[in-house]
Amino acid sequence: MLAPPDREFEWIIAQKKETKFMAKKYNLENLRQVDFTRFINTPIREVSGKKLTLCPFHTEGSPSFFIYPDNSYHCFGCGTHGNAIDFLIKKLGYSFEHACSILEEL
Fold this sequence. Notes:
Layout: H1 8-25, H2 28-32, E1 45-47, E2 50-53, E3 65-67, E4 73-75, E5 81-82, H3 84-92, H4 96-105
Antiparallel strand pairs: 1-2, 2-3, 3-4, 4-5
Helix pairs in contact: 3-4
């Protein structure tokens, strides 16, 4: 949600406060590293200590979506990247708080 230009500064401050609250409520560093592969519907294979699969964000014929040991990800086809929280937000449309609560339960 974008704020009107005349209220943008107030909106930015409010977002920073909310992020600090979330950081206290959840252990964000741990949640970023949760294994989120259960939310991927294509076969995943191990390659040199990394997981490789078709990218869930675009159509492709050969896998280019890598999941690293810390559960961060990067697609060399479309360039999307992130962590477990980002994946649930981008792929499943969850809010930040909902994504954190789901990952906390895993």
